[in-house]
Amino acid sequence: MAKTKTTVDETIETPAETPGSGKGHATPSRKEREAANKRPLVPGDRKEAAKEARRKQQELRDRARVGMANGEEKYMPVRDRGPQRRFVRDWVDARWSLGEFLIPVMFLVLIATIVPIPDLQAYTMLALYAFIGIVILDCLFLGWRVMRAVREKFGADKVERGLRWYATMRALQFRRLRLPKPQVKRGDYPS
Fold this sequence. Notes:
single chain, about 190 residues, 6 helices, elongated
């Protein structure tokens, strides 16, 4: 039996001959690299540069405003950051609060004091004081309930300071004007 030899025609390509490899240009000298990195300290058109800087700042502010309204943690001020603050916000936003109606009631009392009837003015002022007292009691009750819920969720030893005040101030604002915007519907208490 005769053995046949087959020869394999192998061609070895050098990296310079391979298409698509290599830089395709000479290495720049140090002088050329330094010249490419040089930028003037003062732009050529100062007015255009100022407009561009203002536009960029406005874009950043708009993004931060939208991010804060949507509840993105990195855009919030320090007072609103953290899981406990988010929990308190959600708790306050899930309930109806009498503090939301404080400003409209005061506006009605202001209008009623313009009417030249002394008895009406006296009764509206008494009603205002009674309403303010009820709002204070509602805020105290809210603070007690929120702190109890925070202790149950996060542990009694890990409760941050100032959560009652945070909940009270949020409860006294109109729901539409609260920042960050409410992330839960009424009645959807956080668990």
